[in-house]
Amino acid sequence: MSPDHCSTDGGTEQLVEAQPETALDTARHQLVRAASQIDVDQNIVERLTHPRAVHEVTIPLRRDDGTVEVYQGYRVQHDNVRGPYKGGLRYHPHVSREESIGLAMWMTWKCAVVDLPFGGAKGGVNVDPKDLSDDETERLTRRFTNEIRNVIGPMTDIPAPDMGTSAQTMAWIMDTYSVQEAETSPGVVTGKPTSIGGSRGREEAPGRSVAIIGREALDYYERPIEETTVAVQGFGSVGANAARLLDDWGATVVAVSDVNGAAYDPDGLDTWAIPTHDVEPEAVTKHATEVLSNEELLELDVDLLIPAAVGNVITEANVSDVEANLIVEGANGPISFAADAILTDRGIPVVPDIIANAGGVTVSYFEWLQDINRRAWTLEEVQDELEEVMLTAWEAVRREREAHEVTWREAAYILALTRIAEAHESRGLWP
Ligand code: NAD
User: Residue 125 carries which DSSP code?
Assistant: First the structure.
């Protein structure tokens, strides 16, 4: 897996940098909005607007040329009322305290929507991994692990890969932690290689959950999957897995794209014949007979549109050109707030990221269970359990949507907040 590749509980949120609001603004805005729609103790809402802890460390790295550079590292723990903190670690020059807080809050909601016994966390190092050799990345990772060792652990806070980190990064963290604890602790991180306790089916999980939710949403709107057309922006981990599953289930995938543009065929593409991002990066247009721009893909008159590349691709500037009947968010935050409101006015339903791509953190939870029990599941077990978790979450969101007459996004946030608030009420405030 390349350092650029993300395989993450919560995803990489490249979008956040491009958004006018910070991740923290967005997360607080969403919390306040959900809180205003249900009867919830305002003291709990106030508690949830703040992280429980922000761990900020400095990480000295001896470069290959002998010089020492110092980087800033963060681990933000937002809320653990329902279970250990869970969320990715990213290596990116824009990693900051504030961004990590916002992303940690999103993880709290995401885990609650799919009813996992986890809270939300996020963190990382403000480094460009492309500037580091493999040896430097390993040294940085081991030192960072040491700096946050007292606040992570299989029962306290469980990191995962995110933007700029990979299964190999998780293996180094697991090894460093295990050596210092003098016992093998696979459950301290998820997204590991399967040779040391990683789960089968983890890599494809976010795309699989996007496909499952897409299928259920089509069914809800009474569109038989065999008669639907689908366009997918981004043919990476999330987009390719989602596109191929929907293709296998009978949908006609008319367009998929990468950063260079889209392959388009109104009769349906053979999604298995197009190499994914990790096999041959940015190769989609090389395998196309007809090429569209990414902007044109978003404007296709399809039954289902899945933006699964980066954030903030549907904004006030292009939302009036969107012709899809239904949108399922594969990427994190692909639709701006303003555009989301316009889509609602136009009657185009949007199923939000916090349920659709939650398959990643769900299979991370399965990985953690397997690590704790020291028993690996088969791929079939992972897929069956994921299906069950996603269908249960979908039904729960659907019930909230109908009960409160709100959008899918509002329903997902209401469900998450209700579960978190109930847990806070039960536990109370100590002292
Ligand atoms: P990836 O790196 O595997 O693939 C990204 C794809 O998007 C590539 O095909 C790339 O060419 C394309 N792309 C990049 N910039 C683009 C642009 N400006 N316009 C169009 N296409 C562009 O990434 P991924 O893991 O599939 O993640 C995609 C999104 O899903 C991100 O928002 C990420 O945060 C989110 N997500 C990922 C996971 C995960 O575990 N992989 C989990 C949850 C959410």
Answer: E
- Among the residue ranges 19-23, 301-305, 357-361, the one predicted with the least confidence is 19-23
Give residue limits of the domains in the chain.
205-356
Q: Is 332 in the pocket of ligand 1 (CB under 6 A)?
A: yes
User: How many residues in total does the chain contain?
Assistant: 431
- How far apart are the C-alpha atoms of 382 and 387, rounded to whole Å? 9
* Residue where the block lists tokens 């939710």: 213
Token pair, residue 305, equals: 């549109």
Closest CA to 163 of 121, 206, 125: 125
Q: In Å, how far are 252, 316, 320, 322 from 292, measured between CA atoms?
A: 17, 21, 19, 15
What are the residue numbers of the active site?
A: 122
- What is the token pair recorded at 299? 């404007």
pLDDT digits (tens, 9 = 90+) for 37-52: 999 999 999 999 999 9
205-356 CATH fold: Rossmann fold (3.40.50)
pTM (two decimals): 0.94
Cα(13) to ligand 1 centroid in Å equals: 9
Quick one: angle between helices 359-373 and 379-404, nearest 10? 130
Contact yes or no for 213/390 (Cβ under 8 A): yes
